[in-house]
């Protein structure tokens, strides 16, 4: 018989499992339910004590935990509170600061178990020199030089693309080889005849909506225009065809021409970050583009060149070479960016006198194009201001709204003038004197947008509180505007992957459009119906396959363009 291999016998020290005997209440046992609960609790406590989790042990463990926390607090450094009213300089990458890395291979980062190696390898297997990429202030496209619309393409393709761009731009508005004086006169005449608000009547609006919604949205009108998510849409004031400009996440401005062969789409890249707003001026034939990279550019329809109109800078060492620029000192440091911008307008038409901007720090900025100076830089909110709007016939009244959940109306004549010279002397940020708002409207959610209608009769607000609010004659009100406003329930919860909804007015009529989360996907059009606004038109079809967050009417044709987060547009109203 083979010898049995020796085995080690270990004693099982685990406690016996709890017995459920007698742990089910029996009303006929004569024991009260209260006594039963106390007996069961005592049984549980005795069992926990046998495992080392009794009341005495738990008190000891809690005392040890408290001593550990106290030791951590005593060894931690006290948190230094930032000085009130002082902003830290914006963080800049090493490349922007001018730091140079070693040639060949080098360790980019070494954290924990992960080591990241950077560098290039020559054909013979030796370490090479990485090509240096020229970096500009705040990772912008450049330091203010002009950008040609076709410059985003490969060099061998630029000549052909340039020709296509200029052919499209020549039909955008009033561009022609006429003398400047004659052209200016023609522009003013055109503004008076085509852009002036036209009084609405039910018959004309009904016909307009009928023409807009009767044409089916065919698949050929669902077009990829930009590489990334669309944040802004703008139509040129054409009369025979549609020319549409679209801004996306990474600074691209796509161009769609409905008459181009095979619906050819072109794009330029004048910015490095989100193009938050596009505004075409029919009186000057120039496209205004505003970006999160804190630059404002004008694209001339004659030349196809994006010229920098304004850029903001901080007061840190990296911005020293821009001290002579009008935007020096407007940037308030880390987290600052321009959120929205538009032309200064009179009677709803760009007057060429300046531009308005809002910022992530709650500032309202006015840049005077005539003097070349920032005249107003006032703080109107403690949080980001998403939009601003000027009353078309009382241009001294502006409405702002953003993350502070309140629409505010200001009289811009009461703002103080911003003093850039004082900033240069002291190095401290100081905004313009800001008056108190003369009217406010509080919401339960943040404000995506707030715009005056072409007639000036209504103020349309889109809020994350899932409402669209219309305030009658807001510019004439004082104090709280909540009473008397029409509230339309509307699902505005677009989530993190879609651009937020911004209900937008038509350029000449008191009708507006907004995206929709409903299925099947659709664009909604609202107009006056009786005493209030109602959804009187819905754009549906196989081509409307995604949520269109940013939409725009054409001023003179019954056309509506919707932009989605996939970089595609949907064109409704065209055969």
UniProtKB/TrEMBL annotation:
<dbReference type="InterPro" id="IPR001680">
    <property type="entry name" value="WD40_rpt"/>
</dbReference>
<protein>
    <recommendedName>
        <fullName>WD repeat-containing protein</fullName>
    </recommendedName>
</protein>
<feature type="compositionally biased region" description="Basic residues">
    <location>
        <begin position="69"/>
        <end position="84"/>
    </location>
</feature>
<keyword id="KW-0853">WD repeat</keyword>
<dbReference type="Pfam" id="PF00400">
    <property type="entry name" value="WD40"/>
</dbReference>
<dbReference type="InterPro" id="IPR015943">
    <property type="entry name" value="WD40/YVTN_repeat-like_dom_sf"/>
</dbReference>
<dbReference type="GO" id="GO:0005634">
    <property type="term" value="C:nucleus"/>
</dbReference>
<dbReference type="GO" id="GO:2000001">
    <property type="term" value="P:regulation of DNA damage checkpoint"/>
</dbReference>
<feature type="compositionally biased region" description="Basic and acidic residues">
    <location>
        <begin position="85"/>
        <end position="95"/>
    </location>
</feature>
<feature type="region of interest" description="Disordered">
    <location>
        <begin position="47"/>
        <end position="95"/>
    </location>
</feature>
<feature type="repeat" description="WD">
    <location>
        <begin position="268"/>
        <end position="309"/>
    </location>
</feature>
<feature type="compositionally biased region" description="Polar residues">
    <location>
        <begin position="1"/>
        <end position="11"/>
    </location>
</feature>
<feature type="region of interest" description="Disordered">
    <location>
        <begin position="1"/>
        <end position="31"/>
    </location>
</feature>
<feature type="compositionally biased region" description="Polar residues">
    <location>
        <begin position="56"/>
        <end position="65"/>
    </location>
</feature>
<comment type="similarity">
    <text>Belongs to the WD repeat DDB2/WDR76 family.</text>
</comment>
<dbReference type="InterPro" id="IPR036322">
    <property type="entry name" value="WD40_repeat_dom_sf"/>
</dbReference>
<keyword id="KW-0677">Repeat</keyword>
<dbReference type="InterPro" id="IPR050853">
    <property type="entry name" value="WD_repeat_DNA-damage-binding"/>
</dbReference>
<dbReference type="GO" id="GO:0003677">
    <property type="term" value="F:DNA binding"/>
</dbReference>
């Amino acid at each position: 018989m083979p010898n049995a291999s020796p085995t080690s016998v270990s004693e099982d020290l685990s406690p016996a499992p709890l017995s459920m005997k007698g742990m089910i209440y029996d009303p006929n046992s004569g024991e009260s339910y209260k006594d039963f609960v106390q007996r069961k609790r005592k049984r549980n406590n005795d069992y926990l004590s046998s495992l080392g989790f009794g009341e005495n042990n738990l008190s000891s463990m809690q005392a040890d935990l408290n001593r550990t926390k106290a030791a951590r607090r005593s060894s931690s450094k006290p948190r230094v509170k930032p000085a009130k009213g002082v902003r830290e300089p914006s963080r800049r990458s090493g490349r922007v600061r001018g730091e140079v890395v070693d040639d060949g291979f080098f360790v980019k980062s070494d954290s924990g178990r992960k080591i990241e190696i950077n560098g290039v390898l020559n054909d013979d297997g030796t370490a090479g020199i990485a090509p240096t990429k020229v970096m500009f202030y705040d990772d912008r496209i450049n330091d203010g030089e002009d950008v040609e619309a076709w410059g985003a393409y490969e060099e061998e393709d630029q000549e052909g693309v340039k020709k296509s761009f200029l052919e499209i731009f020549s039909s955008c508005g009033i561009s022609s080889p006429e003398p400047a004086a004659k052209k200016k006169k023609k522009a003013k005449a055109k503004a008076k005849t085509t852009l002036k608000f036209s009084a609405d009547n039910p018959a004309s609006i009904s016909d307009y909506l009928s023409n807009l919604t009767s044409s089916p949205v065919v698949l050929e009108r669902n077009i990829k225009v930009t590489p990334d998510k669309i944040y802004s849409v703008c139509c040129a004031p054409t009369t025979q065809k549609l020319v549409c400009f679209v801004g996306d996440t990474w600074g691209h401005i796509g161009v769609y021409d409905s008459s181009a062969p095979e619906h050819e789409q072109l794009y330029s890249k004048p910015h490095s970050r989100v193009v938050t707003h596009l505004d075409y001026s029919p009186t000057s034939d120039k496209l205004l583009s505003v970006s999160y990279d804190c630059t404002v550019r004008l694209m001339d329809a004659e030349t196809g060149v994006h010229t920098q109109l304004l850029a903001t800078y901080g007061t840190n060492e990296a911005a020293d070479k821009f001290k002579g620029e009008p935007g020096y000192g407007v940037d308030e440091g880390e987290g600052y960016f321009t959120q929205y911008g538009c032309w200064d307008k009179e009677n709803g038409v760009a007057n060429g006198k300046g531009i308005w901007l809002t910022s992530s720090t709650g500032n309202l900025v006015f840049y005077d194009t005539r003097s070349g100076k920032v005249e107003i830089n006032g703080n109107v909110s403690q949080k980001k201001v998403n939009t601003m709007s000027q009353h078309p016939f009382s241009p001294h009244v502006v409405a702002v709204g953003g993350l502070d959940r309140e629409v505010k109306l200001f009289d811009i004549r009461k703002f103080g003038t911003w003093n850039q010279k004082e900033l240069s002397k002291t190095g401290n940020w100081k905004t313009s004197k800001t008056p108190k708002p003369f009217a406010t409207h509080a919401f339960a959610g943040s404000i995506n947008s707030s715009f005056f209608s072409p007639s000036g009769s209504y103020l349309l607000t889109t809020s994350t509180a899932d409402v669209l609010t219309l305030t009658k004659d807001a510019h004439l009100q004082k104090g709280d505007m909540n009473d008397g406003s029409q509230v339309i329930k509307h699902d505005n919860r677009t989530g993190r992957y879609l651009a937020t909804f911004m209900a937008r007015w038509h350029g000449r009529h008191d009708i507006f459009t907004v995206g929709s989360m409903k299925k099947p996907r659709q664009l909604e059009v609202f107009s006056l119906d009786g005493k209030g606004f109602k959804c009187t038109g819905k754009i549906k079809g196989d081509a409307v396959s995604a949520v269109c967050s940013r939409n725009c009417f054409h001023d003179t044709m019954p056309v509506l363009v919707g932009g989605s987060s996939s970089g595609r547009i949907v064109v409704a109203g065209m055969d």
